[in-house]
Write the C-alpha cells for this entry.
Amino acid sequence: MTAGMNPDQIDDPRVSDEARALMTRLARLGPLYGNKVPKAALYLDDLIDAGQLPIFRDGEEGTLVPLAEAAARFGSTGDIRQSLHDLHALGALLVDTDDEHDMALIRMVAKRPEEPGQPWRFQGDPDAVAAMTCMPNRIWEELPLEVAGAVAYLRMCRSRLEKPDPETYGQREGMNGTAHARKLFAAALASGAVDEKGCEACPAGHLCTRTED
C-alpha cells in the first residue's frame, strides 16, 4: 500500500473521515516502511492507539500488555510507537489476524523462515531455539532507521562470519541499489555501533551469536 497522499484531498468534503484518517496514517507511517506500508502496519498502529497490545507466545494463549509495560519488555526508552514499527519492519514481530474473533494480534518472532515453505517460529516455541545476534538498543533511538538497519545487518554478518554484500542488501525493499547500501554501511561503521561491545552475557563481547534461555 503506497503511502502517497494529496494534502488537498484531506480538506475535500467528498472525502470521508475514515478515508482522511487513513491517508494521514499512511503519510505518517510511510517513511518507516520505504513508503510502501503493509496492511499489517495499519493493524499495528490501531493496536498502539488502543493502548494495549495483545501479545501471543507460541500457541493460542495471549496477554493484553499496556504500552508502558510493552516498552520495558521490548527494551525501548524512546518512542514506543516507532520502536514497535521498527521491530515490525525488521521482522522481529509479526502482526497476525484472527478472523474468527475479528482482531489483530502480535507474535514475537524467534526465527523467521529461511526458505519458502518453512514455518515461522515464535517465542515460547521449543523448536525455535536459534542463534541470536546482540544489538545495542540505542541504535533505534539515536540513528536514522536506514542506518540502524545497516548496523543490524553488519553485526549479524560479523557474528555469522559472513562477508556483507552491498549488492544483495541494496536490492532489499526501500533500498536504492548498491551505492545506497555502501553509503549506509559507511554511516553504520562511522556510528561506532557496529563495533560496540559490552553485553555481560556474551563472552565474545557483544559480537556473538547466542540462544535465549
Q: What stands out?
A: The chain has nine helices and seven strands. The chain has a mean pLDDT of 75. The first strand starts at residue 52 and ends at 56. Strands lie at 52-56, 62-66, 93-98, 103-111, 121-122, 132-133, 209-210.
